[in-house]
Design a protein that fits this description.
CATH architecture of the largest domain: 3-Layer(aba) Sandwich
GO molecular function, one term: metal ion binding
Largest sheet: 5 strands, parallel
Number of strands: 5
Strand order of the largest sheet: 2-3-4-1-5
Shape: globular
EC number: 2.7.7.7
Strand content: 5-15%
Radius of gyration: 37 Å
Order of helices and strands: HHEHHEHEHEHEHHHHHHHHHHHH
Protein name: DNA polymerase III subunit gamma/tau
Function: DNA polymerase III is a complex, multichain enzyme responsible for most of the replicative synthesis in bacteria. This DNA polymerase also exhibits 3' to 5' exonuclease activity.
CATH topology of the largest domain: Rossmann fold
Number of helices: 19
Family: Belongs to the DnaX/STICHEL family.
Helix content: 40-55%
Number of domains: 3
Amino acid sequence: MPERRVLTLKYRPQTFADLLVQDHVRDTLTRAITNNRVANAYLFAGPRGVGKTSTARILAKCLNCQESETPTVTPCGACSACVEIATSRSIDVFEIDGASNRGIDQVRELRENIKYSPASLRCKVYIIDEVHMLTEPAFNALLKTLEEPPAHARFIFATTEGHLVPATIISRCQRFDFRRATPEEIAARLRWLADQEDIKASDAALLAIARRADGAIRDGESILEQLATYQPEGIEASAVTEMLGLVPGEVYADYTGRLLLGDLAGSLRIAGELFDRGFDVIEFYSGLVQHFRNLAHIQIADQAEGLGLLPEERERLADQARKLTRGQVIRTLELLLRVEDTARHTRMPRVLLDYLSLELAAALGPAQPASAPSEDPRPGKMQSERPHPTRPEPEAGTKSRPAGSSSKPKPVPPTRQKSPPAPPRPRKAAGGKAEKPAGPDPNPAPGDPTPAGDRESPPSNDDLIEQMRRILGDVEER
């Protein structure tokens, strides 16, 4: 029986022409090879399954293909050098796992071996995968060799955590950031693979697989092969949701629609049924976040491109987006993101589902009318009014001050500053009543119908100046 290879290895890119999505990487490297400007070290950073290690192997073949006397952008793939590099059997191309060989001892061994010339190829190539896993001493031991390597050596680092690589390493490399593939790009790749392998699959199924792959082409290819084994007669979208444990998109639309109508019991019933059927709570939570993200894109800018939506899904989301305000979408996303950590670590998933339903009902339910009165039994007291602290009663025999004046109950002596002169200190007339100072009164007339405790307008500048003078005068007397 002939040996069968999995799709991810059988259709792995072997030349730059096979490399998908990463056009900026392909164009730059091919020009560097053509113009003999290949760098000493490269850093390939990006998410999983987007072609970092494959690009490193392609570059190694371009530098060492034996069908060409000089580096070429089109390696033959048939010579011994190309075959050995493609199968990871070359003694001059080293693929090192940074997670397993992360210590300073392994780096010291590398530094000793790099001095020797290659055994059969033009140059040695060191491919270190997950380079961010190296220890700090290992990185430090690599600095000098990385800055001034031998002429016959090249370094290619690959990582999914580019921010964890020390700046001293990055400054000695040419960095390339690999981007995620869009659902449409992954679906196109899966359609091509299905045609090559005679796999029957609907467009809706391939798009569902592409969304599940989350930008990783390799993940999409693995899922396609798994589903081809599960349903050899033909892959449908229902099989994708069943096999991968996904919540159908119409469930999220129904759940959100009931919340919009204020049907909390209906939304709780939907969440409970999903839990009883064994759906993962994190899967439901992630799908809900994605649902409201799609609503935000369609509602704010009518941007459905790049979301990986079928026409009927786009129409359903557009209809629901028209029933939501922008504030409701923003509040819902804030709520979902706020409970993300709780959702991933909770030991009571059913309680979490109920809590989410209650919170979302408060955020999306029918709004209360703005004129609704509060529970305050006093007539004429509206909900929008703010409570005010009680003010002390004026002393006996003292006239209360008009609204907006200083809150001090007793007059304070004037300041002793020479410039500017302080206003004269109020004197008490017969009967214990305070006389008003000369000059215009900046305060409102005593007949102002609005009580001082209910005024919301800030004091005027004159009031603030008067209050500061009284405070300073009080401090000087003390």
